Amino acid sequence: MLQEMIFAGFGGQGVLSMGTLLAYAAMKEGNEVSWMPSYGPEMRGGTANCIVNISDQPISSPIVSEFDVAVVLNNPSLRKFEPKVKPGGTLFWESTNIKPPPSRTDIDIYALPAIEKATNELGNVKVMNMLILGALLKIKNTVKKESLMTALKNTLPERYHHLIPLNEKAIELGMSLV
Fold first, then answer.
1. Using one digit for the tens of pLDDT, what is the confidence trace for 72-127?
2. Cα 25 from chain centroid?
């Protein structure tokens, strides 16, 4: 089982964090993992993405040109990575701000109003990435939710541990949206 994924959006949207958490959780479950970030020098506000590969076998290369799963949080990322999802693959997109929607018919597409839900239902737009990660977990069963929570506790700086319950609520909300 090899899953090749890309997480893409603007810097500051939690794109690299999503990839890091998923990779860490998969590693703790005994999988082979590669995580490769890509971002410009402006980082926050510029484009950012990371490729995450998870497998039960050794991974030959972290560089991937087509993906089983794409998670896109902004319009430039949708336009760039929608064509790179393999036929039969899955695309998760943040539907609050991206217009027009994806157009492919040969992939599974999940529209997630993550910014709207994180703001209106959880009171913090910064957890919208966790909401999308919850949807991904529900659909793809990449890792167990418990493993993701362990990853969050082990990678989040201790000064932010008071936000772990909010992040868990965001994951659960994301799971309920799909």
1. 999 999 999 999 999 999 999 999 999 999 999 999 999 999 999 999 999 999 99
2. 13
For residue 160, count CB atoms less than 10 angstroms from its CB and return exposed for 0-12, middle for 13-18, buried for 19 or more.
exposed
Taking the C-alpha atoms of residue 31 and residue 130, their distance in angstroms, rounded to an integer, is: 21
Structure tokens at 96: 């609050």
The structural domains of the chain, with segments of one domain joined by +, span 2-176
pLDDT tens sequence across 53-82: 999 999 999 899 999 999 999 999 999 999
Report how far residue 20's alpha carbon sits from residue 151's, in angstroms, rounded to the nearest whole number.
Answer: 9
pLDDT score for 44: 60
Q: CB of 66 within 8 A of CB of 85? A: yes
Q: Is the pTM of this model over 0.90?
A: yes
One-letter amino acid for residue 25 of the chain: A
Fold of 2-176: Pyruvate-ferredoxin Oxidoreductase; domain 3 (3.40.920)
DSSP state of 107: S
Closest CA to 99 of 72, 126, 125: 72
Output the six-digit token pair for 111: 């529209």
